[in-house]
Amino acid sequence: MNHRFLTGTATIALVIALGAAAPARADDQAPAAPAPAADQTPAPPPHPMVGSVMFSGWVEGGSNINPDDPANHVNFGQLFTDRSNSFRMNQFVLTAEKDLDPAATGMDWGFKFQPMYGTDARFTHTVGLWDRETHSPYQIDIVELNGSAHVPIVVSGGIDLKAGIYSTPIGYEVIDATGNFFYTHSYIFNFGIPLKHTGLITTSHVNDMFDVWLGVDTGVNTGLPTRGGDDNNSEALLGGLGINNPIPNLTILALAHVGAENGYRKGFSNTFCDVPLTGVVGNLTTSSCPTAFGAGARAVDPNGKSRQIYDIVTTYKINDALSVANELNYIRDDLAHADGGGAALYGTYQFNDSLSFGARGEVFRDDNGFFVAAFPQSQSFINAERGLAPGVAANHVGEVTGYNAGKANYLEVTLGANYKPPLPTLPLGASLLVRPEVRWDHAWALNPGAHPFDVNSTGAGTKDDQFLFSVDAIFGF
């Protein structure tokens, strides 16, 4: 049997054993203590505080066992959990933050600083910010660096403002490993939404039911143009509506992000050659378009072509134990003539204080084979964001941007559990969460003979199905 498969399997067994072996506290068996009287000293905060600033962090690592053991060691269709049969430390995160008071009626302010080290940083980089520092899969990124304020003006609940680098409010799943039930991510999270923005976003609390979101930023995962952080010369807009409790325990968040997102290649003209019906060919000079690609090709400025992202998340808490959520997503890249999107359904059941179960089912359509791709090398993803088409080498780093499998429909079903082993009382609010799961992916290729999974030694995919047995552990402090 392949040694990579054995190594990954041993990693999963070790992570589960560490969680299961954690000792139980004696007081977990005792009846719940009565609530303290109102005049007693309140319980200390779960994380260390300095004034109103809270400090916290976590370390996350795990493994994804792929029985096919693909020759390129890539679990196609995924980004953050793309490496098969090996252990990765995905995130080591530290956070310093002061939250806005949700009950504030006057002025209030806050901030958040959150650096991250690990393999996830390959995909969360703000363009132009430490994105070319290393060829290692372990990289550093600033996930959040922003200031916020609440101002009691215009609408009854006031307006919250946030400026700087911040995680997108779009979508159900998030970068923060502690904010997701599953270790692997949905196709929608990987390929259908932004991850971060640099700009200004406002949330206007019109009343208890309605929030209006409006923001302007430099684009998807991009930074400040003055620092080479924007891959084009165009801004993007984010906007939408939040609906809170139209019926009890139901929330709806509908957001859109629209702006030019296709980057330039340094040393080339700022035009793309666009071949009708086949999509973007690449950055070439205007005069070379007809010569290289036929009379139908024409030069276009990527600033004039938008990427449109529309997303609706609905969450409903049925009772104290059972919750469901649904995400609907549509993405369109005008320059590539590409459409994609899908739907994901989530359900979670809290069995007891230590154990919960979850399921996710999803369909995602990539009409033109533009969105779903693999980025196997350490700088492949950032090369793509900087304007290199899949398979094009970046001369100054020697790494390709990645590859896609062409037009296809994707289905994935994931079943998992969250286990929080009882731990002895530890300082700094320490905690442990273990997340085992099993996942099945299936693809209906729209190109005859194309198969996205289990790439062989020649670089060709051989299967339409992929099974993963995954587990990670998150140690919080």
Q: Topology of this protein?
A:
Elements lengths: L2 H18 L28 E2 L2 E13 L21 E12 L9 E11 L2 H4 L14 E13 L7 E9 L19 H6 L3 E10 L4 E8 L18 E9 L5 E10 L12 E4 L3 E5 L4 H6 L4 E3 L6 E11 L4 E12 L4 E13 L4 E12 L6 E2 L5 H6 L7 E2 L4 E2 L2 E2 L3 E12 L11 E15 L7 E3 L5 E3 L1 E12 L1
Antiparallel strand pairs: 1-2, 2-3, 2-26, 3-4, 4-5, 5-6, 6-7, 7-8, 8-9, 9-10, 10-14, 11-12, 11-13, 14-15, 15-16, 16-17, 17-22, 18-21, 19-20, 22-23, 23-26, 24-25
Description of the molecule:
The structure is a single chain. With 477 residues, the protein is mostly beta strands. The chain has one domain: Porin. The chain has 5 helices and 26 strands. It has helices spanning 3-20, 121-124, 187-192, 288-293, 380-385, and strands at residues 49-50, 53-65, 87-98, 108-118, 139-151, 159-167, 196-205, 210-217, 236-244, 250-259, 272-275, 279-283, 298-300, 307-317, 322-333, 338-350, 355-366, 373-374, 393-394, 399-400, 403-404, 408-419, 431-445, 453-455, 461-463, 465-476. The strands form 5 sheets. The protein has a 16-stranded antiparallel barrel. The protein has a 3-stranded antiparallel sheet with strand order 12-11-13. A two-stranded antiparallel sheet has the order 18-21. A hairpin with a 2-residue loop joins strand 1 and strand 2. It is globular and about 65 Å long.
Beta-strand portion reads 35-45%
CATH class descriptor name: Mainly Beta
Seen as an oligomer or otherwise, the chain set is: single chain
The gyration radius over C-alpha positions equals 23 Å
Q: How many individual β-strands?
A: 26
Q: What would CATH call the homologous superfamily?
A: Porin
Spatial order of the strands in the main sheet?
2-3-4-5-6-7-8-9-10-14-15-16-17-22-23-26
As residue ranges, the low-confidence spans are 14-42, 265-271, 276-287, 393-397
Separation, N- and C-terminal Cα atoms: 39 Å
Which structural category fits the helices and strands?
Answer: mainly beta
Under the CATH scheme, which architecture would be assigned?
A: Beta Barrel
Helix content: under 10%
